[in-house]
Amino acid sequence: MNINALDAQVDSQFLSPEDQRWVAFVESKPEATIFHHPAWLNVLAESYGYRPFVIAVCDAAGQIVAGLPVLEVRSRVRGWRWVSLPFTDYCAPLYDDPESLGQLTNDLALLYQTGGVPSIEVRWELPSHPAMRSRSAYYLHRLRLNSDPQLVLKGFKRTHRQNIGTAEERGVHIERGTEPEHLRRFYAMQLETRRRKGIPVQPRKFFDLLGKHILAQGLGFVLLAYKDVQCLAGGLFLHWQQTLTYKYAASSGEDQQYRPNNLLSWTAMRWGCENGYTVFDLGRTELENAGLRRFKNGWGAEESPLIYSMLSAAPPSASDSKLMSLMEPLIQKAPPWVCRAAGELLYRHFG
């Protein structure tokens, strides 16, 4: 069933992410993040062949009062489903009032219950509905920024402050950039990091499109940490509205006694403070990953349960983690091209 046919089943409308009503609505919401921006949907859609759209509740005048960006994923491996959004830790619906959010939730449930869509996943907590299940496997970590970076610095645990000082004393310096060369260096380190962990790396096309739709449009940047001429670590950051998001991190796995990641994170936070951002998004963390939770909390981040809302007859599958555990030793022992080929082959199916 196509989207035009589904449109007749509910009061909500299906819009293009570039629809000016959606763009204006999102720009009016300070809580919106880069993940609501059409550019992020375009990166995912072009990288993996997904169909992007927005499901929107409109008032009598045709103005949007609630909306959610969605990608339609059609996979021979995992079937047909809607996700808001693949390869995105969270994506909250935007709305003017609880009533409009309730209407959006009811319309999503109706689309599922009438058989229009076999599975819908929203990576945020929606209002309770009889057809909906909730899943909580992560914490979300976000740090409040301030126009005075020193006030943010004072909120760090002593170990984090010491590690920043260690990096500076040992001559680590940070390079910030948005050019293809910066992205190329980051991708090379990302490939190295993923191979070391036994995880397929994202397709190179994905990073090329990040450069085209995000970095070149002033919506993100790369930070690279160097000791002399050796690149020790890198981070890819996305930003829009009031939120600066730490999306991807990579490291050489060597010379970590220089503490490059601490200085890299602090450099990004300081840039956010100086450029008017109020939230530094550290992303999601698995519930059982106590070490990473301590690391993020050490920055003074606020930890909150991250709840996903599911409309699906089948419970979440454990097949993804089983497949990754089987691939881990193969990728670690194989040449880098295996890590790249696995990502090219598999990534689009597991968004």
List keywords for this structure.
351 residues, 2 domains, 12 helices, 13-stranded mixed β-sheet, Aminopeptidase, 38% helix, single chain, alpha+beta
Quick structural overview:
The chain is of the alpha+beta class.
The radius of gyration is: 21 Å
* CATH superfamily heading of the largest domain: Gcn5-related N-acetyltransferase (GNAT)
State the domain count.
2
Derived from helix and strand composition plus strand pairing, the structural class reads alpha+beta
Major β-sheet annotation: 13 strands, mixed
Q: Which consecutive residue ranges, at least 5 long each, have pLDDT under 50?
A: none
Morphology: globular
- Taking all residues together, what is the mean pLDDT? 92
DSSP helix count?
12
Could you state the order of secondary-structure elements as H and E? HEHHEEEEHEEHHEHHEEEHEHEHH
Using DSSP, what is the number of strands? 13
Give the % helix: 25-40%
Question: Would you tell me which CATH topology of the largest domain applies?
Answer: Aminopeptidase
CATH classification class of the largest domain: Alpha Beta
- CATH architecture classification name of the largest domain: 3-Layer(aba) Sandwich
Distance between the termini: 21 Å
Strand content: 25-35%
